[in-house]
Amino acid sequence: MTRHASVPGRFLEIAAGAPDRPAVVSDDVVVTYSHLARRSQALAMELRQRGVTADSIVAVCIDRSSGLVAAQLAAMLADGAFLPLDPAHPTERLEGIIRDAGPVVVLADPANASRFPRADLITLDGPTWERFESNGEPFEAREPAPGDLAYLIYTSGSTGTPKGVEVQHDSLANLVDWHQRAFRVTPDDRATQFAGPGFDALVWELWPYLTAGAAVHLVPDDVRADPVALRDWLVREGITISFAPTAIAEQLVRASWPPETRLRVLLTGADALHAYPRDGLPFAFVNAYGPTEATVVTSAGTVPTVADTRRPPTIGRAIDNVHLHVVGRDGAELPAGEPGELWIGGANVARGYRGRPELTEERFAEDPFGCGGRIYRSGDLVRVDAEGEVEFLGRVDDQVKIRGNRVEPGEVAAALSSMDVATSVFVDARPDAGGDLRLVAYLVTPDQPDVQAIRARLEERLPSYMIPAAFARLDALPLTPNGKVDKGLLPDPQPHPAAAPAATLSPVEAEVAEIVAELLDVPSVDRDDDFFQLGGHSLMGAQLVARLRDAFDIDLALRAVFDHPTVSGLATEVEEAILAKLSSGPDASGPAAVAQAAR
Q1: pLDDT tens digits, 7-19
Q2: Which pTM was predicted?
Q3: d(C-alpha 533, C-alpha 544), whole Å
Q4: Same domain? 562 vs 476
Q5: Is residue 193 part of a domain?
């Protein structure tokens, strides 16, 4: 370990020893360690002048960029803790987090600065950075205490209010130490930054590398949800270690890879993993698990290529200085093979929830197993297999993962209830045709609800992954004898009526409609139906593009789904791609050729 135990201290040591090494790379822009250090130190001085001290919160609302990295680093260098805010989230949600967290300062880029009119705000545009960098005063670095806050991050809350998790410097340092040892990180590595600004995986993507002298390459937005384009970008950039959320990683490990691939480790996490990698991959595939309350990662394991088709891959074993316990209802540890709740102890356990002592007392406790320290009751249902690896079985409570994000269905129900769209509301997570969970909202109303209007109102308050994929009207919610909603009696939603007769669709439209209906697990779709309004999302859009490519043997960009999300629009894009492919041959254009290609 270096002289400094903390992440900001280690970064400054690296920057002093290798100032000209690339730290953050975005497209053709390379930010060196010295440049990143100058920016963050100058901004840290300004933060101290505005009252930031140990455990002070500095909110950061900046899109994925080197500026986001510098802002988070500056908050830690100023002795404070950073609070990541995702600019993609509705302003109302961000305002609620700000009220709860009470940051001393908000750092924002110009695109988001106007969203915080009542905050002490620093807008990090070009002139502001230049002013900070030209300060000229020497920066006095101070090593934070191990128990000081490094960051505060908000997760979904069952009451309708997100809850803030307080993570200390010693927990973050343990994550960094384990990662660097487990994956042999060196200054020659090229890693990636994929996660959104408000997702705690970003912490894992940045600091193990920026405290080792490696370079972090920002994944371009236009390839993040397209596995084929992402694979090509990883190869082109010479990436050696990468993280991808589960839905994308499952497609990457099934793809073919060229011999010049430098990737040696592909990490995944966020959702339950279902796919095993194919034989012959040039890299190790590692599945990781960890709740926000335990600093991103608490267990990990390399996924073998030989699959036991009766069960999904495990979540591996505990990382360094973390211990895992499978516990029964009586609080006693269970033997291997017995399912129970996962309790997590050791260095990664967070301090608790901000401003919520009752909830902290409920979920965090002194370790009863003689290991020392505190434990976190995860609420996840697991068991340990014969080899000592942990199998993830689901949730003890109702909290779920939707597209890699933790969601309390109760928070979504609370938002719907506050809108007065129904006399009773219940939100459940149900698998779609592909086995992925989607949110379904059940509304007790006398008439059919205006789903489009409800979606529009929810989009003003909730992130996209918390918008229900389907809505169902009920006369009453089915209840158990003790008065709880009987989820077993809830009907499967019928999100769309039967489509128009197939004769009204062209051959290409009919094929596209069939693919969309199968992917979204709906009975049928019409030519004017919108993929996203029917419950599709960006990761599912990548699957749609892959199926269209296979069905029509064409090259189709993911952008086509966003620009032309209706069946008719997608069919037009497919027809144009078919014509482009056939245009070089005689008699290969026109409706007849397109219809023949669609068969």
Answers
A1: 999 999 999 999 9
A2: 0.80
A3: 15
A4: no
A5: no
